[in-house]
Amino acid sequence: MSRPIRIVVDGEPLSGIEGQTVAGILLASGRLSWRTTRSGAPRGVFCGIGACFDCVLTVNGVPDVRACRRRATDGDEIRTQTRQEKS
Known about the structure:
mainly beta; 5-stranded mixed sheet; 8 strands; 1 helix; 3-stranded mixed sheet
């Protein structure tokens, strides 16, 4: 039986099922992107297998975690990342 879990992304609580990846929960909630590049272009899941770094975010204070590889756990605190160019 699937156990429900809850994560918090940028202050917003999201529900998922134990065993889902962070990317899976984000996609199921309707989020297609959660990071921006230096130019401001949106990024989310690209390869889905952990080969690229388009889906990185900060999980429990650890930056650059690949959302497609990380299994979400109940209570995870997640922040999206931005790589804006310096003026």
